[in-house]
Structures are given as C-alpha cells and as structure tokens.
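User: For a reading group we're discussing how well predicted structures match intuition. Take Cytochrome c oxidase subunit 2. Before you show the prediction, I'll give you the sequence so everyone sees exactly what went in.
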Amino acid sequence: MAHPSQLGLQDAASPVMEELLYFHDHTLMIVFLISTLILYVIVAMVSTKLTNKFILESQEIEIIWTILPAVILILIALPSLRILYLMDEINDPHLTIKAIGHQWYWSYEYSDYETLNFDSYMTPTQDLTSGQFRLLETDHRMVTPMESPIRVLITADDVLHAWAVPALGIKMDAVPGRLNQASFTTTRPGVFYGQCSEICGANHSFMPIVVEAVPLQQFENWSSLMLEEASL
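Assistant: Thanks. Here is the predicted 3D structure of Cytochrome c oxidase subunit 2, as structure tokens, for the group to look at:
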C-alpha cells in the first residue's frame, strides 16, 4: 500500500509491475536529460556576450533537432509497446476469478469452484482491529495462490467502475454488459490494497479492493473452508 509522504511508486509484487517500474525509471532519466539540455541552452542564450544572436539558417541544427527527437521517441515507444503486450498476455491461467462492481462494493466469483462466491464490503471504521487500515480493509478479501497465473474477469452490475491494484500493476475498467480481463502473478505472499478508480457515485471512495496472496496449500485450505460454509 502507499505510505504517507511517499514520492515513488509502490513496491512491485508482480512481474508486470516490475516492468512498469523499470520503464518509469528509464523514461524519467530521458526526461532529466532533455530538461538539463534545454536548461543549458536557455542559460547559454541569455548569458552569451555575442552581439549577433540571430541565426537565420542552419541546416545542421535542423537535421539534429529533427533526428534526435525521433530517436528519443523510439527509445520510449519500444519498451512501452513491449509492456503493453505483456499486460495483455494470458497464458493458461491456473485460476479464474470474476470481479463484479456494484454501487458500492465488489463481488467475487471463483469460476473454477461452482459455489465459491462472496461480496466484499469495506470494513467500517468502528469495526477495524489493530493494524487494519481505514477505508482500505474489507470484510472478505480476494484470496489467491502466490506464484500462479491468475486471470481476473472484470465487469459491473450498474455503472462504470474500475478494478485497480497498484502493487500488482492492474487497472481495468468494469463496464456493465461487458467482460474485460486482466492477469497477474504475485511473486511473494502479502496483502495488496486497491480502490475503485472510476468515479461511480456518492460512495465511490468506499469500495476498496484487497488481494491476499498466500502459499498454494494455504489457499486450498481457505477454499475448502469457504466451500463448506457455502454448503451449510
């Protein structure tokens, strides 16, 4: 989750988010270099002691300032396109979960288990226990096995929502009548927080998302317990 006074992005918990962090740093260095060059040119132009400051024509400069931006754009575009294709790649997921946005809570259906589904509401402030986060904790977390490719089918029941978990590098619109899909693989166990990222009404800020990644054995124990409760 984010921390007070945090300047950078959240720590990556999936391979896609790691790639996004690398791309962010790569692009930021290019921005710094361009800004430094432009600042130097401005300072040199206003502080020069040359009397003739008017350049009417220079083929060499025009060639440079045409080719150089094209090269910079290519250096940014190629890794960007690579990450876009990586984010769309879904290879033989081990588990499929359907996330449905409502006003104002999320529902989860585990497609591989017929009766495993539940609603996930924000935990009210007065019900929080020690260590839980206000406006971020839910009464039921979306539990997933770690180091397993997970496919999430995302839709909405009423208005536009968006299912977003920054640490996993996921942000996908939930559109009524339409199924969008995203995938992630958690590289470590943990609890990862997100929120609805599409303004959906009065309680838009009160429908958090909590993904809990656990070892496979622990996930199987949890799913068995949930199925037993559903059958009662």
